[in-house]
Protein 1
Amino acid sequence: MSSNINDKFKKIETYLIKITNDFDKGVFVFQVGFPEKWFYKSNEHVECQKIANIEQEGESAGFIIEIFPKKEDIYIEEVVNFIVKTVETNNRIAEMEELFMEKMKTEKQKMLKEVEEFSSQIENFRMSSFDDLNNDENIEFNLNKIKKVGEEFGKVVDESKENKPLEKNNNDLKNIDPDDIDKKTDNK
């Protein structure tokens, strides 16, 4: 039995701060330190009381709790089992959270790469659309490519904008008086 309790103490030694004997209550009190996000909860046999916060470099890093039996007839092994289960459960949760965060990081990198590819393709089609503004077929071709690329990446282009026919602009830049441009910019 003693080797069993020693094995259990080894599982919690990282978190165990000290064990004291509360002579008034007739019980041993375990002080343990847990990381900030860890959860603990008293049960019908064991009491948990938070006694202090742990700060590291001005930020919360965890807390210290006292864990002790609620009655004198609760054996120390039950309290140790409670602490072991609390540590094991929180460690498993932390591992799952870490795996999830790693997966999210990978997915984020993948999405950023897709967005970069999407933006690059759109920019290429946009640039080639303006190579020859008099070539309506080239513009339509590039707009259709942009639409396909958008759909490919899950983007839905506003159909009302897409279905409008291209209007040929009769305003020729040659007809703009350069003096008018200078007057407008001088007034600003």
Protein 2
Amino acid sequence: MIRRLTDVKHIPRLLEYGKKWHGKSSYAHLAFSYERSKATLKAAMLSPGSVVFAAFDEEKLCGALVGMIVEFPWFEESFATDLIFMADKYGDRLFATFAKWARKHTKHIQMGVTSGLGTADKFYQAIGMKQIGGIYVGELE
């Protein structure tokens, strides 16, 4: 298993991996956009306040985490959060790598769960994080 900060040469592999996860998620009814995803990954790779980590088993991509530092809007603190976190394997190590990076920037972390798959909740609870709310989704007509 290899953990590393990815660069733009990894984007095509990340896109294919992301498309697979998208198809299993609660957003599967929405069309996957390669262009939007490519732009998001590139921006995250180039911004000093964000990061892209990937996990590999030998040469097989088996996880990815796109994270960033965000300022709280109501007080002088920031927090680390994920934009994308998907893993078939080594999710715990991806999270640990992200948390280590985040500690250099902030002391707060908030991880979202929107996939609808149920595995993330169990993981976050197992590592001692507490749930403080929820995300409500709907369609506007």
Protein 3
Amino acid sequence: MPKLTAVFNVTLPAPIVMRSDGKPVVVSVMIDDFNVLIKLIPDSRSRSKKHKERLWTVACNAVSIWVSRDEKVMPPRVIPKSDGTLDLTIRIPYFNKRGTDYKRIALQVLNNAIMFFKYELKQPQLKAIDEHTDEINNPKWIDDRGEEIRTGMYVVTSKGIFGQRNEYGVIKFENKHKRNLQSSILKTKMTKLHHEILSDAQSSAFEGNIRRAVLELAIACEVFIKHTLFGGSDISALAFEALEDKRIVSVRVLDMIDIGGVGVPNGSFKKYDKKAYQDIDYIFRARNKVAHRGNPVFRDEKGNLQKVDAKLLRQWWISVDKLFSWAS
């Protein structure tokens, strides 16, 4: 049977750091009935090495993935018209039928490789490639003789706009924000820690990483509350930390926003917004399950086991915004 190959040349969101002799590194695998090659292409334009090292340290900015499979039939032959032009559209149904499987395999191999570099080799700037990336949707097709097959199609993709429904705390820019934007441009400010962590939680949520979003959301709440209640007084903060270190006191965040809320103009958060308070409670219950077992679940007030999904996470985010407004 004739072999059909799809070649996906993908630019990485961040470089892979590697030692190289200047040649591409090729890894081959079999997945289902596909033969797959992934080629790491070193960029030798910027390289370095120590005096006694043999190999150069270089960046790999792009990878090439070759996905091949034996097909019963090859694309239909295109016969030139009388004026010499070619109508390639007759091939579109052929590639539409098969392209999804080739793309799925390429994306699986690419993102599994990226996760290896990100977590096993601890290269944190790498991120998974989105299925809507143009390079994933427009491979180069090659026949079993190594010749390119023109498809007569080009796929244009469009990513959704993150935060278009104000989900996960996103605030849409409007004219009323121009003055604040101007002030921010003129004066460099240090970002508060809870804002940084909350932003990380947003990124995790939009990427669909629910368990990490839960963990970071809970940390952002804890940091915000402790900085709010103790940030204005070094003496009280040091005293509280000393008592905690000696295990003389152990205060939950929920206790701080309820009982400790007497020091906030709006009083107890539990009385301020009972439903939001309950959501904060659930966030920390889910946080504990994520920390202990890596699973975003929690038990509600009735003892029922609940799994955190995107819908519930969006609801919790509204309650977190209320918490921040309550204490600000």
Protein 4
Amino acid sequence: MSIFTENLDGLKKLIEEDTKRKDSYTSIAKNIVFSGNLNRKFNELLTDAEKNSDDPESWNRLGAFAYQKGKFPKALLYFHRAIKHSPNNYDYWNNLGLTYYKLKRISQAIKALKKAIVLDESRSGARFNLCNCYMELKNLGQQKVCWEKILELEPTNSYAIFGLAMVYDKKSEHHKAIKYYEEFLGNEPEFFITWHNLGWNYDEIGNVDKAIECYEKCLAIHPKNNRALINLAHAYVIKERYMDIVMYYTKFVEYYP
């Protein structure tokens, strides 16, 4: 009899003795079974990898499983084993780079991801992960290069369009930020924070009417967005719309006392 079976038998007895606690004991039982299944799956993958130690995909599967369960140091070890047996595999280098990123080992992540890109320049996955590394480093110049390259490969990729808009936003290149935010909103009109960001950039170039329009669209989707509320109130100050100033300041204080 396994430890999982023993525990489940014990829990069954507790449930029978105290039905009021049935839900909590059932939940515990499910967690034990789930944990047991995970351990069993890991052991199966490990056995397969050790049995087929020259098969890189066996190590990659084991690494992917460890990664999914948040076991990043183990995942790192297994991805390295996969690369040892297949050093020119794009996916293995990309997986390794992503794992280094999760461990906050950014310079090593960048090195691994660049290797993946060299192996296959036509795929964008490693470039996305590389962008995330440069975002972690707050390197706007390299972020811009990454997003632009992704857009060369996938001209309508919304995530890259938004990323490039954010780069120009942070660089205070407002007209370019506006261009890419508007392009993004053409595909993703319900993404409320983009309406706020677009409004703020219009504010910065002095187009208060467009800023107000964008802030209002943001609040139509997310009525309690604090930045849109306060910035809209400020915009109404410029327009001398006093009743609107009072209304939005009142809402801000009501939501964020």
